[in-house]
Amino acid sequence: MEKLLLIVFAIINSVFISTSAAREFNFDGANLHRRSTDETLCNQLIKPAGYSCTEHTVQTKDGYLVALHRVSSRNKDQGGQRGPPVLLQHGLFMAGDAWFLGSPEQSLGFILADEGFDVWVGSVRGTYWSQGHISLSEKDKEFWDWSWEELALFDLAEMIHYVHSVTSSKVLIVGHSQGTIMSLAALIQPNVVEMVEAAALLCPISYLDHLTAPLVLRMVGLHLDQMVLAMGIHQLNFRSKILIDLLDSICDGHIECADLLTSITGKNCCFNSSIADLFFEFEPHPSSAKNLRHLFQMIRKGTFSRYDYGMFKNMELYGQLNPPAFDLSLIPKTLPLWMGYGGHDSLADVTDVERTLKGLQGKPELLYLENYGHLDFILSTQGKEDVYNNMIGFFRSLGKYSSS
Ligand SMILES: *[C@@H]1O[C@H](CO)[C@@H](O)[C@H](O)[C@H]1NC(C)=O
């Protein structure tokens, strides 16, 4: 049993160590927790590229202090006139930095700012930019007692509310991966969707039972989620030195380590491997073990439901044996939706995307890219031409926004 656990840890950890460059990355203790105060997302990635950037803190109803970053192009910021607000919501084990890792011509965060949008970037609780709470510390296990359900209904809902009230405007939402699960769950809530103008979903996920990523399926089969929780691990932080060392000793010989990013996310056509150093400087961000468990429940059961606590606690919490489903048909038909998905995405499988589409009342605009994998949608070298121009065209077609 112990040996199995070690191997499993090595597997999940090695997901993020798929290049030799990353292996040489110095995962020292300083990286385990939030960086020093001047090491902010604005200072590290956004201002150096010549964009203006301000930091905002939003307090969620359950007491978390989460970061929002507001970005605009230097060129567009002079007249005081800001474009329509757009909120970017990142995926699992990532944070707001994920939208800024490529060049300004390649990265959606910069592109939207250059196109005159008022760009707001969320980072959910537990990521390096959002480790505050009114009473808990990230060392407390209670700090990690949440899954994407709370990220949707507390973090994202509060961020939308904040942007809506600062800008006095309805908000455009862009989500990637887990950010789309969160978006869909949030848009079902009438008090949230009323603040939203439209949503663009990259690699949309609500169902996960056709996921094909071999490494993820292996972890599900090994019940990694239950094991981690049974061991009393509540924060999933893949930068710990123990796990890196374990990986080095176990990885060779047991699994093919050269191409682990592919065996998680699918074959990415257009991810520039030269940015791996930068990528691993920021990713992976921590998440919670409970969140992993919730995602694995979706993979096992093919449901888009609230967290499954088991029959007795479900009965107590929900008044029924099984957790209630999130009903996609409650998203208003009138809400404009856009979705970009890929034929090589082994997490947001085409079959599952089609099931999501069937569940919705409205008909989203669709962009299907046969050769795109899961990471290409945020890190492609030609994302602007392949994906973002189309998305921006959708935003502009809503009629409310003149081209700037
Ligand atoms: C890949 O990344 C490197 C390093 O940032 C950069 O010099 C190069 O231009 C990039 N290639 C493409 C096709 O964007």
UniProtKB/TrEMBL annotation:
Highest taxon of the lineage: Eukaryota
Keywords: Glycoprotein, Hydrolase, Lipid degradation, Lipid metabolism, Signal
Catalytic site positions: S177, D345, H374
Pfam families (UniProt xref): Abhydro_lipase
SUPFAM superfamilies (UniProt xref): alpha/beta-Hydrolases
GO-annotated molecular function: hydrolase activity, acting on ester bonds
Record domain Partial AB-hydrolase lipase: where: 43-101
Gene3D superfamilies: alpha/beta hydrolase (3.40.50.1820)
GO biological process: lipid catabolic process
Signal peptide: 1-21
Family per record: Belongs to the AB hydrolase superfamily. Lipase family.
UniProt name for this protein: Lipase
